Amino acid sequence: MAKKTLNLMSLKGILGAENVSTEKEKLMSYIEAGLVSGAKPEAVVRPKNTAQVTELINLARSERMNLIFSSSSHPRFHGGAIPDHEGVIVDMSGMDKIMRMDRRNKVALVEPGVTFNHLTKAAGEAGLKVLMPLLPRSGKSVLASYLEREPILIPKYHWDMTDPLLCTELIFGTGDLFHTGSSAGPGSLEQQWKAGRVQKTPMGPGQTDFVRVVQGSQGTMAAVTWSSVKLEIKPSVHHIWFIPDKNLSKLVDFTYKALRPKLGDEFLILNAITLATIIADDEDSIPDLAAKQAPWTLIYGVSGYEYLPAERVAYQESDLSKIAQSAGISAISEVPGCSANRMDRILSCPSREPYYKQRPKGAFTDIFFLTTLDRAQEFISVMKHEAEEHTYSASEIGVYLQPIQQGRAIHLEFTLYYNPIDEKEVEKARSLFTSASSALSKAGAFYSRPYGIWADLAYSKCPDTVSVLRKVKDMLDPDHVLNQGKLCFNKEVI
Q1: Arithmetic mean of pLDDT, 137-155
Q2: How large is the average pLDDT for residues 77-99?
Q3: What is the pTM assigned to this prediction?
Q4: Which domains does the chain have, with CATH numbers?
Q5: What pLDDT score does 227 carry?
Q6: Can you tell me the mean pLDDT for 422-433?
Q7: 254, 283, 289, 298: which has the fewest Cβ within 10 Å?
């Protein structure tokens, strides 16, 4: 059956004419993310509330319309919200309320348009701290980041892969509205708050856990219209320490021993170019600053809160110092170009503009996956070999290791920088990205967020998972109106 013509009148009837656009300039801003290009959308719409999102999904079912949900501002880098097929972009950035801020229970309830800039300011005023990934974009949606499982900087607070995401309001592709976890009731949110209840238990109702189904699904299972998220108490004392070394294995040994008893807060490892990119005042100073750094630098933070903060910091710093000494390394309070106090300020905020990964050459593409810390050097060697094959300088590849789940695993990320107006550089980066992605997958890289070509690499290894996911998709989105073509749903037809 032929696809229907887009029903603009119905869209405007639901959302208002001012919230429906077919302007070419707006449409074109949604078709590229780094090296990824997609189909041109037919329209961009901006819902203001849950009722409008529900009506929109019901209209999509009747009109056989493809909906692609997006909540972060331009530019985009990974392609999860880039249309694989023509359809309607549902820009959720206008739903930007912080619906609740609860210091006692360390939780906030936010809509999709709430950015890290917005939440960090509001949380700070309430004496709370946002669990952030490394330098998110200023316009990055908190909810989008958590739904995509971007790793946070503090592994000891990362108990489960769903953290820091808690309860959610979902609208499935059937048009059904569903509240997960302790937000399911009884009663409305306001009634629950009045009774002293908070939306902090993600599993439920009963033994269901739809957050796990929706998280990481790139908008193919449901629209998320709000979520409660974990926060932490804002430290009254916070110290940052650096451990630079030429030997990554020493830093690996230290990290395992430090995270086992849950010492410290922030824990991350950067190579020289990544560290320089973060701390440089301008792009011209990055190469010289990188040359002054050790090949690897581990950064960790130690916090004291309301009760005996100095004592809490002192005992942890003492224990961490002993662990470092046993590993043959030592912590210092400054590296070339950056003091501990400055790094504290950098890590506590979203990235300043331009986004830090755009500073070296203007554009970049990332390769990231999950593995274990003891295997990091093996994957770094694979990446180095691929870079040499493509005459790409390995010393110019950014490397970021982020322990997650209290150190049980790590997010390992390689960043390839390139000049977007130099066609040869673009093609070299594209070729290396494709080749290295495949080589790393063969070496055991787990693409838990399978954007673009990673979907085939990830799902080809597990056909049983593909079969189950397609059955779940048929139940939750029977008309396949949500982000067609993503993940293993690349044979969808409306």
Answers
A1: 96
A2: 92
A3: 0.95
A4: 8-93 (3.30.43.10), 94-233 (3.30.465.10), 237-347 (3.30.70.3450), 361-442 (3.30.70.2750)
A5: 98
A6: 96
A7: 283
The Cα 34–Cα 57 span in angstroms is 29
Owner of token pair 């529900």: 54
> CA-CA distance, 262 to 227, in Å (whole number)?
27
Give the tokens for residue 122. Answer: 């509001």
Here the tokens at position 236 are 């009254």
Other C-beta atoms closer than 10 Å to the C-beta of 77 total: 20
Tokens of 49: 């509330």
pLDDT digits (tens, 9 = 90+) for 70-79: 999 888 888 8
Lookup result for tokens 């004419």: 17
Q: HSE, CB side, 13 Å, CA atoms: give it for residue 445.
A: 28
Q: Over the stretch 170-201, which tens digit does the pLDDT of each residue have? A: 999 999 999 999 999 899 999 999 999 999 99
Beta strand segments in 19-159, E: 20-21, 32-33, 36-37, 43-45, 67-70, 88-91, 98-102, 107-110, 128-130
Q: Contact 259/159 with Cβ under 8 angstroms?
A: no
Identify the residue whose tokens are 């238990």.
201
Tell me, what amino acid is at 93? S
> How sure is the predictor about 80, in pLDDT bands with cuts at 50, 70 and 90?
confident
10 Å CB burial of residue 186 (0-12, 13-18, 19+) is exposed
Residue with tokens 């493809």: 66
